[in-house]
Amino acid sequence: MPQETYRVIQWMTGDVGQAGIRHFAQNPIFDLMGVLVHSKDKVGVDAGVIAGIDPIGVAATDDVEAICGLDADCVFYTPIIMDVDTVCRLLRSGKNVVTTSGFFHPSPTFDDPGELLRAACRDGGSSFYGAGIHPGYAGDLLPLTLARVMSRIDTINVYEVVDVLKDAPLDHVDWMGFAKEKDRFLREPTILGLGLPFFAQSMYMIADGLGVTIDEITAADVEVATATNDIAYADGVIPAGTVAAQRHRWTAYVEGAPLIVFHAIYITAGPDQLEPPWDWGETRYDIVIDGDPPTSLTLKGAPRPDGTHAHPGYDWTAMAAINAIPDICDAEPGWHHQLDLGLVRPRGLVRR
What we know:
This protein is an alpha/beta fold. It folds into 2 domains: 6-131 and 324-341, Rossmann fold, CATH 3.40.50.720; 141-310, Dihydrodipicolinate Reductase, domain 2. Helix content is 28%, strand content 27%. The protein has helices at residues 15-26, 47-50, 64-68, 84-92, 111-124, 141-147, 164-167, 172-175, 182-187, 196-210, 313-322, 325-330, 338-341; strands at residues 6-11, 30-36, 74-77, 96-99, 127-130, 152-163, 216-217, 221-227, 231-233, 236-238, 243-254, 257-267, 274-275, 284-292, 295-299, 334-336. The two termini are 25 Å apart.
């Protein structure tokens, strides 16, 4: 039988972790037991204050031993990169782990660490699950949902479009390589290019869901557009002639032909300030399936009742995972992914 409430730990308090804290504080089915932080200046601070809401009576700590010793049902684990040993420790202690840090689907790249996670689940009688907005939802669950109404599928294209200066933290300008000379940018590794193993998980999930086998996934094909004039923003400027937009494309081949194509398009300006004059529009996810009948779906943020608008990317990332916590806690032990978990049943979302 499902539990009435679930005791949770928030592991790290970046943008996604803060979204988690806000939800745990507001949803009556969750009881936030503890919050782990990395920064010394957050130690002892009320978790609500860290997350930008009123105090909630839970002080943050950097004491890993104390956090691991809490009697909790689930850890919401949100570092950017997963430490497999730490997650295995949590699983062996009997705590379920739901994460946004990867391991969304058992693709070949993750065979070895995947076995460690499965063994830890067996030892602790616990469950593990990974999700997020992309990978983990927009690029895999939505295409498979659309496939339900198709008679034939020829190709699946997933477009992630992000207006960086409007809808992303401004540190993305630096760590994504904007404002670099074009030739240098194309020579050096890129953050998105290094993400192939993670995006590939979504491609394997789609293929497994459709009952086909991927032959190969090509590395990112990269294109850029440069600024036609200086583009000023709060933290600096993207000089004219440097990279102001980038497009990455990965392709999964099945039976020798392209089946799944992922496009990641990050821009800092409109077509009047770019060369070539790319016009990708607003931040969104587009899923486009060519076949019978041709079908598409767009996911994007909407204005609030007061007319304000902010891209909800971090909230989407957090909630794609958090809403599965009850199902994961109630599931049989093991590494669960979306194809075996089935339809997630969110709880506590309807609050008057």
